[in-house]
Amino acid sequence: MDAAEVEFLAEKELVTIIPNFSLDKIYLIGGDLGPFNPGLPVEVPLWLAINLKQRQKCRLLPPEWMDVEKLEKIRDHERKEETFTPMPSPYYMELTKLLLNHASDNIPKADEIRTLVKDMWDTRIAKLRVSADSFVRQQEAHAKLDNLTLMEINTSGTFLTQALNHMYKLRTNLQPSESTQSQDF
Amino acid sequence: MSEAYFRVESGALGPEENFLSLDDILMSHEKLPVRTETAMPRLGAFFLDRSGGAETDNAVPQGSKLELPLWLAKGLFDNKRRILSVELPKIYQEGWRTVFSADANVVDLHKMGPHFYGFGSQLLHFDSPENADISQSLLQTFIGRFRRIMDSSQNAYNEDTSALVARLDEMERGLFQTGQKGLNDFQCWEKGQASQITASNLVQNYKKRKFTDIED
């Protein structure tokens, strides 16, 4: 998967906006998008929110986890634990990037939030590497990692699966191979 | 799916090489020391220092030591051992195996034959009594070096990586490249370049002529 494809999947997440136009309820294949009244908050998918913001038709409200104190708490919790802690959203990386790039004027302390989320990402990736290394070193058969987000899996996944493929082939060499057909002259 | 060209993977680590894989072709060109068990007529023209001379029909006498490429040695090798017997190259023997088990990270695998793992896996076809030890040593070497490859490939962004890959063999270099690609992909997305349209690298070298040129 590309990072862009993961971002596409993340754009289905719901965020709250405050439109400045009015529109009746629209019925889309994926679901209904509730009536838009100027000044009243409404929940829409992220793709629509970004599009409306770019056309200056709405104001974005940050998700309730996108707050400096809360993120600091989560970051410190993540640093203390050895396993992965649950993240505020399964798409926290993509939401942060999109919201902070397009709507940083609607989000207080945008730079600090960016730094905090990056710290969380770095901590989690480091944990992923440690766990991959111990997995390979002990030649485990399978591992279970809770609370990983798709973006993290996608970034390190290809390398890990390729390395494990190689390891598997080297391991099957340990079994004595059955004799292959050979021609007699 | 954004790749323009899918290469045929190397099968060398598994039971058999892939016929169409370029990596395997290069790998099986490496030389292997062998000993002939029977005289080979007329081959002495190629190995002048070993040939028996003109009266024996330029034959290579029995028991002489030659260095043949892997593909030739594999083709001539037979379980009843009538034609060749294979000696293991130094790096797959006891001495080097202890070096690998002590610390696999210090060895320059590129110098030891750039296809260390592939060649070693194909050597197992020659039914040497040390096969179990060789395959165990290959596996443990890989496991030992895995951490360093992972760390260096995932952390080197936009740098000159020649110092990092200098001591890796070809299979490890492929892994390194995969790691780099994952990293570059993520960074490129984060910078926002993923949504910009750029020219495909297949057509970047085509020189487009200006419309006025065509008109003349």
Briefly summarize what is shown.
The complex is a heterodimer of chains A (185) and B (216). Chain A has 185 residues and is mostly helical.
Describe the structure.
The complex is a heterodimer of chains A (185) and B (216). Chain A has 185 residues and is mainly alpha-helical. Chain A has a single domain, classed as Methane Monooxygenase Hydroxylase, Chain G, domain 1 (Up-down Bundle). Chain A is built from six helices and five strands. Chain A has helices spanning 3-10, 46-54, 68-80, 92-102, 110-137, 150-172, and strands at residues 14-19, 26-28, 31-33, 42-45, 58-60. In chain A, a hairpin with a 2-residue loop joins strand 2 and strand 3. In chain A, helix 4 (92-102) runs antiparallel to helix 5 and helix 5 packs parallel to helix 6 (150-172). The radius of gyration of chain A is 23 Å and the shape is elongated. The termini of chain A are far apart. Residues 178-185 of chain A have low confidence and may be disordered. Chain B starts with 21 loop residues before the first helix and ends with a helix. Chain B has helices at 22-27, 70-76, 94-102, 116-123, 131-155, 162-165, 170-191, 211-215, and strands spanning 31-36, 65-69, 84-86. Chain B has 216 residues and is mainly alpha-helical. The longest helix of chain B is centred in the middle third of the chain and has 25 residues, at 131-155. Chain B has two domains: 1-87, Up-down Bundle (Methane Monooxygenase Hydroxylase, Chain G, domain 1), CATH 1.20.58; 90-191, Methane Monooxygenase Hydroxylase, Chain G, domain 1 (Up-down Bundle), CATH 1.20.58.2050. Chain B has a three-stranded antiparallel β-sheet. In chain B, helix 4 (116-123) runs antiparallel to helix 5 and helix 5 runs parallel beside helix 7 (170-191). The interface between A and B is large, with 36 and 42 residues. Chain B: Residues 96-189 form the GINS subunit domain. Chain B: InterPro entries: GINS_A, GINS_bundle-like_dom_sf, GINS_Psf3, GINS_Psf3_sf, PSF3_N. Chain B: It comes from Aotus nancymaae.
